[in-house]
Design brief:
Blueprint lengths: L1 E2 L3 E6 L9 E10 L2 E9 L4 H24 L18
């Protein structure tokens, strides 16, 4: 599902999910002069798989923040949030 310009929902299947289908939602919210990107990855078969993906998404978010900072997009920051039930 895509709701331009603020929401993208997709399924994700990989060896890291035990070849089970998981759900990734990316949402962008206006926050005054800034924007907030919220990524939710859920429906993992095990909490361990969720934890591994949390680390991977954290690395990607850090790289995105660095890129945006270098591109002159202000001072991006990353705030990881762990959700209950093995979702991140």
């Amino acid at each position: 599902m895509v709701e331009p310009p603020s929401k993208l929902v997709l399924t994700w299947t990989s060896k890291g999910t035990g070849d089970e289908t998981t759900l990734v939602t990316v949402e962008i919210f206006e926050r005054g002069k800034h924007s907030e990107l919220v990524l939710t990855h859920e429906r993992f078969p095990t909490p361990e798989q969720a934890k591994r993906h949390e680390g991977g998404w954290g690395q990607i978010a850090d790289k995105l923040a660095a890129y945006l900072g270098e591109a002159g997009c202000g001072q991006p920051s990353v705030t990881p949030t762990e959700l209950p039930g093995g979702r991140s």
